[in-house]
Design brief:
mainly alpha; 2 helices
Length: 62
């Protein structure tokens, strides 16, 4: 992912995750996998997102 993207409701930005080291880095996939394996689901808060419309300064042709 690119840097300088807006964080979600958790307020955890990609830059924060990118700089995880040691035990925090190793435990982050363990936490995500535990949620899926033991609960068969992810926490509802992880599903929340904010979508903001960003106007383009010119016509978008893609």
């Amino acid at each position: 992912m690119s840097n300088n993207k807006a964080s979600g409701p958790s307020k955890i930005s990609y830059e924060m995750l990118k700089h995880l080291t040691g035990e925090a880095f190793n435990l982050s996939p363990v936490l995500a996998n535990a949620c899926l394996i033991h609960h068969g689901d992810i926490p509802a808060d992880w599903r929340e997102v904010f979508v903001y419309s960003i106007p383009r300064p010119h016509e978008f042709d893609a």
